[in-house]
Structures are given as C-alpha cells and as structure tokens.
Amino acid sequence: MFVPVRPTARRIVPEAVAGKVLMRLVYIVLEPQYQSVLTAAIARINRDNAHLQIEASGYLIEEIRDPECYEAFCEDLNRANVFIASLVFVEEVASKLVAAVTPCAIAWMPASCFRRCRR
C-alpha cells in the first residue's frame, strides 16, 4: 500500500547561498531508496562545494497521481533549472509528465527543449 508524504517534507533548501550559484532541481523517482541516494548526494554538495548550492524538490512516481502533488510538482518545475525523471514505467504518470514538459526534456535531449509546466 502506498502512503503519500507531502513533497514539502522532502524539500532540500541550502542553508547558506551567499556568493554561490543556486541550482533548483526537481526530480521524480520510482522508489524511496533512489530518493535517499539523491538526498545524500545533494547534502554533500551543499556541504562541500564552495561554488554551488542545490535546492531540490523530490517526488515519487506514485505521488504524481494525486492532483495536489501534481500541482506542487508543476509549480516546482516552473522554478527549476534541472529536471530528472527516472524509471517512469506507468503510462498514466508518464502522460502527466509529458503534459508538464515537452517530450524532449528526457535525459538524452538538449536542455533547450525544456518548457514550462502547462496548467
């Protein structure tokens, strides 16, 4: 059984950005363990990198089915510099992602193809 957690509970906001580049990342992954790995990597970058800080909003694939989570995802996506989607096998969720970004936002396509979330 899937128990949703509000995405704001997993949001990573760097403590000190002054003088550093801030990158806003939105990601969607299949399972919590993938999210844990990304969270640890972002925390390490934020702690150790002298030039870059990452603000991240993470979602599990199942959360995108919920209208409130999908709306939050779209809002985060509108502010993002980078979007990562991994292991999206569910057609219903994939269709929602395609509605939020152009198909060329998939990893092997240029970032210039990215467009804002459609309402």
List the helices and strands and how they pair.
Elements: E1 21-29, H1 32-48, E2 52-60, H2 67-79, E3 82-85, H3 91-100
Parallel strand pairs: 1-2, 1-3
Describe this structure in words.
With 119 residues, the protein is of the alpha/beta class. It has three helices and three strands; from the N terminus they run E-H-E-H-E-H. The protein has helices spanning 32-48, 67-79, 91-100; strands at residues 21-29, 52-60, 82-85. The protein has a three-stranded parallel β-sheet, sandwiched between helices. It is elongated and about 40 Å long.
Please name the defining characteristics of this protein.
alpha/beta; 3 helices; 119 residues; 3 strands; three-stranded parallel beta sheet
